[in-house]
Amino acid sequence: MDLAYVWFFIVGVLFVGYFVLDGFDFGAGMSLPFLGKDDISRRQIINTIGPVWDLNETWVIVAGACLFAAFPEWYATLFSGFYLALLLILLALIARGVSFEYRHQRDSLKWKKGFDTMIVIGSFVPALLWGVAVGNIVQGVPLDADHEFTGSLLTLLNPYGLWVGVTTLLLFFVHGVYFIGLKTDGQVQRDAQTLAKRLAIPTVIFAAGCVLWTLAIAAGRDAPLFWLSVTCGVVAAVSLLISVAANWRGRDGRAFAAGAGTIVFAVLTLWTALFPYVMPSSTDPAFSLTIENASSTDYTLTIMTWAAVIFLPLVLLYQAWTYWVFRKRVTRTRIEKAAAAVH
């Protein structure tokens, strides 16, 4: 197989990893107003992702760098056309990161609430806009003969793009709540299980609609991997239902694993529906960016492949080790003892 096609799927896998890992960070951040009844419980929630959020976030940097090196035409069109949306995501991520680092610097309740609000906003905005961006890539955007985006931010806020955005928002929200249930104890854990139950119905509705709408788009342009998209969509739906059932039974680990599987196969549904395009043009199909006309040279892709073969396993091992080190639950007793020691 041509290396350009291999790298199309490698970039897809990197975004899958990012959405699974930073997805539960976003969900945990969005859950603060619902699960954080007092400062101790809010610290419990934040501490579940405290050791790993920045490591999870690096996946998008790697994905962006690989996109730039493997598909420079795609990168140029995407980052120039989606500039405002991506800028909003970047600002939100900065606000969230700053909040994690500065929230504990003062005992003032007002100070902490201000940064908690930034964490919520900094989690909500990317969870929504990443879905809007990916949805528009799959659906197609107005491109001219020079592969330049001719729309605006409002162009991206179309029905399908917003539907995908709300779907990713809900999937990440539920994914993060499952993670909190898995990593905490006491009232926070019980509240997380209850919140996940309340989110189940809207999440299932939007996810089902997203899969069906995406498959309709793929069928409309005779996507060569249509049946693979169908398969991924079915697996995503089954995984979501399994996660809901596991949460109802109080099986936090199974709910989280099935929720992660839902995100994996939901993103793969979108990615396979996009193939062999990387940015379809809604202006004229002849103006579309494809894997072949957007990729780098074979020499560049060969060097990148060897680098990926050597370094990617090391990165995965390091991340797995990090999660193993911080595998224990964040208990309320531990937070209370830490707070008492400070005072």
Automatic annotation (TrEMBL):
Major location (coarse): membrane
Membrane topology, record value: Multi-pass membrane protein
Cross-referenced InterPro entries: Cyt-d_oxidase_su2
Pfam family, one: Cyt_bd_oxida_II
Ranges annotated as spanning the membrane: 6-24, 77-98, 119-140, 160-179, 199-219, 225-248, 255-279, 299-326
Family classification: Belongs to the cytochrome ubiquinol oxidase subunit 2 family.
The protein's name: Cytochrome c oxidase assembly protein
Species lineage: Bacteria, Bacillati, Actinomycetota, Actinomycetes, Micrococcales
